[in-house]
Structures are given as structure tokens and as C-alpha cells.
UniProtKB/TrEMBL annotation:
Zinc finger (dksA C4-type): 88-112
Annotated ranges, domain Zinc finger DksA/TraR C4-type: 83-110
Gene3D superfamilies: DksA, coiled-coil domain
Alphabetically ordered keywords of this record: Metal-binding, Zinc, Zinc-finger
Species of the source: Pseudarthrobacter enclensis
Identification of the protein by name: RNA polymerase-binding transcription factor DksA
Amino acid sequence: MPDFDRFHALLEEERERRMALLPALRADIEAANSARQDSNVDDEHDPEGATIAFELSQAAALLKQSSAGLDQIEAALARLAAGTYGTCAECGEPIAEGRLEARPWTPFCIRHASSGRGR
């Protein structure tokens, strides 16, 4: 049986880490947008490294990924509160503790994660 208190602490730590990251990512997006609007440089053909468009795209992807991860963490905390944490949402079998160690927010056992649902 998993140590639910330990997993709760892990989830809370990850939640706080991601919540702290979101404002920084939003600021990066705002800065890239501002740089793009304030510049008449053709950044697509700039030989000086990464383009503003690339930086904006990268920051937006990280923001989307972090937001989705935060949603998964919130869902896992709700499962903890409801007493369903550690049980596969697909088959109802217990999720192996090693899987919970690797991905404490997962709602799926390894069998159902490999089918693409729990990644």
C-alpha cells in the first residue's frame, strides 16, 4: 500500500514548483511579444541565433505543458482527497508504487499508460 502522506507531499511540492514557473513563462511570452512588436528586424532571416518567433513558440509550448501538468497534479490531489488515489482509472487495479514514484500524478496503471492514455 502506497504511503499516501508521502505522495501528497510530493504532489504539493510539484504543484508549488509549477505554480512558481507559470508567471515566469508568461513574462517570457510577454517579453517576446513586446520585442516582436517593437522591432522591424526580419527575425526569420537573422543570422544571430534563435529568432523571436522561435523563442515565443518555445515559451508558449512550455506554458501549455506546465499548465497541463498542473491540471494533472490537481486531479491527483483530488483523488487523494476522495480516497481513489493509486487506483487505475481504467481498470480499477492498484497502480504500482514504482509507477507512482515516477509519475505521482498518473491516474493509470502501467498497462493502460502504455496504450497512450496515461502519458
